[in-house]
Amino acid sequence: MLERHREAMGNPATGPIFANGAGKAFDLDSLYRHQMKERLEQTGIEWEGWHGFRRGLATNLERIGVRESIAAVILRHTNERVTRKHYIKPPSIEARAAMRLLSEAFSNVGSVKLLPKIAPQTSQKSEDATGASWVQ
Fold it and tell me: Domain-by-domain residue ranges, the chain?
């Protein structure tokens, strides 16, 4: 895609990749004001700025299985740590679903309760007054 764009621009050896009519770097805020703002408002999408756009891009790339290192390259970060720490934000619905799964995993343990201080060489089972098994 970039190759086709470069050819359409006359195959320049220097200068910005995306130039405006005067040959200067394309102004993204101008793009928003003149081509995106009205369309986003019509569809009810609230614009959070270019940083929000980049954060959403990184999060969605991660959600569809793109490795963090590839997302970092796309966002032109020096390493994936920046991408992971500041850009990939798991949606709260996913966090709630993850906590639900964790809760279900714990509820499947049954009546066996693990004590905090277990000596591996003295593992034995005992029952309390309620009949619940304790692993010691």
Answer: 2-109
